[in-house]
Design goal:
The protein is 26% helix and 34% strand. The longest helix is centred in the middle third of the chain and has 13 residues. It has 2 domains: 76 residues, Alpha-Beta Plaits (2-Layer Sandwich); 187 residues, 3-Layer(aba) Sandwich (Rossmann fold). It has 7 helices and 14 strands. It is globular and about 50 Å long. With 278 residues, it is α/β, with parallel strands linked by helices. Strand 2 and strand 3 form a beta hairpin.
Amino acid sequence: MAELAYIGYHFTIEPKDPAAEILMAELGETPFESFEETETGLSAYIQKQFWTEDVLNDIYILQSPEFKITYTVEDIEQVNWNEEWEKNFEPIEVSNACRIRAPFHEYKDVQYDIVIEPKMSFGTGHHETTFMMAQHLLETDVTGKKTLDMGCGTAILAILAEMKGAQPIDAIDIDNWCYLNSIENAERNNCKHITVYEGDAALLKGKNYDVIIANINRNILLNDMQQYVDCLNKDGILLLSGFYEEDIPFIDASCTEKGLTFVKKLQKNNWVALKYVN
């Protein structure tokens, strides 16, 4: 990947939760393309060529009286992002069955060996939500089941689903970088049944799935929940993550009022991942 010049915004947020997630989601709708949670808030990065003075004008949460959000701006010259994440990226093992690694890591004999080059996309397996969603998939029989990976990021969950026998699989992300990265990672892992789309829940109209994986954030999940339920087949499985334990009442109310039945909760630190059936 070529070296690119970036501008970094370092946000200090009080209180941090859930404002950091909301801010990340809002910035994700703009040319910002890389995010890092910090102890005090969030750092976000945008290529200089896409930066404008009004880049934050439509970020609603910055005007919210519920949170105190300040930020500093840093000029970052010629960062090689591959080198940056390679410095810290170590293989991840999930339930002793799935190993997520980068191309430069040595192969280790496991049931599911996934090779990911995340670049700027979310989903290396290091984040608690991706890890728990992989756990849910490892415990779920998806053989021959039509599957959706919504907000696919690196397509790591779609790849694991195919390795476990799911097909066909749709992987959708609104971010162009994630879309291109997902295609690359699916090819890297010799996946034959994954189709990647760039877009949002509007793409789900008229489609049906046996398994839906949605690892996004609370607000988007609540906004799109009806669309997920509308395209979930009878006895279908819905796996949800991207939110905190305190968000469960909101997510659960939305799911149960739409006829879904709660099955299982996984928790890692304060993040959770829920499983429902239709």
